[in-house]
What we know:
There is one protein chain. The protein is mainly alpha-helical. The chain folds into two domains: about 5-195 and about 315-355, 3-Layer(aba) Sandwich (Rossmann fold), CATH 3.40.50; about 220-310, Tyrosyl-Transfer RNA Synthetase. The protein is built from 17 helices and five strands. It has helices at about 20-35, 45-50, 60-75, 90-100, 105-110, 115-120, 130-135, 135-145, 160-175, 190-195, 220-230, 250-255, 260-265, 270-280, 285-310, 315-345, 350-365, and strands spanning about 5-10, 40-45, 85, 150, 185. The strands form two sheets. A three-stranded parallel β-sheet has the order 1-2-3. Helix 3 crosses helix 15 and helix 12 (about 250-255) packs across helix 15 (about 285-310). The radius of gyration is 24 Å and the shape is elongated. The structure holds adenosine-5'-triphosphate and magnesium ion.
Amino acid sequence: MEKEKIILTGDRPTGKLHIGHYIGSLKRRVQLQNSGEFDKIFIMIADAQALTDNFDNPEKVRQNIIEVALDYLSVGLDPAKSNLFIQSQISELTELTFFYMNLVTVSRLQRNPTVKSEIQMRNFEASIPVGFFNYPISQAADITAFKATTVPVGEDQLPMIEQTKEIVHSFNRIYGETLVVPEALIPQNGAQGRLPGVDGKAKMSKSLGNCIYLSDSADAVKDAIMKKMYTDPLHIKVADPGHVEGNMVFTYLEAFSNQQQLEAYLPGYASLDEVKEHYKRGGLGDVNLKKFLINVLEDELAPIRARRAEYEKDIPGVYDILKKGTEAAHEAASKTLSEVKAAMKINYFDDAELIKAQAEKYQRTE
Ligand code: ATP
Ligand code: MG
C-alpha cells in the first residue's frame, strides 16, 4: 500500500489570526486541502502549547479558541475535508510527549534557534518554565501522533520540524520502525515565509501588536496601511528618490500582489520591478502605492470577511465542528499511541505472549 499523505498543522489560540499567518501557512493549507491529494488533514488549535507561556492567563486562551476557529472557517478550511480539533482534549499527545522526552537532551533544546529567540522575546532568560522549554517535544508529539507526512508552516517553524525528525529517527532506531518522518512545507517567496509587521519589525506577530487581522474591517485595513505602515522616512516629497529595501509597502506587495492586480490597480507598469525602479528614481508617491496595496489586500480579505460573518451567526455550530474534528483526531492519535506503546514494550496487558512466557519461566523454576 502506498504511504498515506497526511497533513498536520496548527496555530496557537493567543489572538486572532493575521495576514502573516494567512500568507505563511493558511492559504497554502486551503490549496492543499482542495487539491484532493491528501488522505487526511488535521488542523490543530494548540491551546496546550499556548498555555506554556500563557499559563497565568487561561481566559485569553479560552476566548481565542473560537476566534481561531472562525478564522479557519473563513479562509476556506472545510470541516468536510479537514479535521479541526483542540489539542488539550487529546491526552494521547501528552503521553507521547512524555516518552519522547527521553530522546532529547537539554542542550539540544537550548540550541533550537526558535526556542532561543522566543525565550528572549518573553524575557524567560533568567527562569524558563519547563513546559515552555519542552514545547518542541510536544510539537513532535502533535506531528507524529497523526503520522503527518506534510507540515505547511511559516519559516520560523523549520527548527521545530528538524527537532521532530531527530526524535522520529531516534525512536525508530531504538524501538523499531513506528513513526513517520514529516516534511515541512514553507513558502518559496521569502516575504511570505516571515511577513514583517506593519511597523517594519521582523515578524508580524500577535504578541507584538503589529498586525493586520483577517477579521479587520475594510476601514481598519485602510487605516493600518495609510497611517501605520512603515515606508521610507527619507521619501518626503514625491519627487525624492525612494528606498525599496525595508519599505513595508513593497514587502507586502511582493508577498500578496500578482500581475493581473498590477494591471488593474496600477496600470502602466510591466512588472513590480518597474514600479520599484520608478520609486527609486523619484516621482512615485506613497499614497498611490498604498492605494494599490489596499486593493490587493481587499481582493483577498473581502471574501474571508463575508464567510466569517456567516459562521458568526452560528457559534454553537462552530463548537460542534471542533468537537467532531476532535473526535476524529482522538481516534487517529490513540491508534498511534498503541503502536508506540507496543514498540516500547509497555503494552503489558495486550501482550498474551509476554504473560505466557513469564508463566512458563516460573513453572520451570518450581
Ligand atoms: P505567538 O506570538 O503567540 O507565537 P504567532 O503570531 O507567532 O503567535 P503562531 O500560532 O505561533 O503565531 O504561528 C502559527 C503559524 O503561522 C506558524 O506556521 C507560523 O510559522 C506562521 N506564522 C506566524 N507568524 C508569521 C508571519 N509573520 N509570517 C509568516 N508566517 C507566520
Ligand atoms: Mg509563534
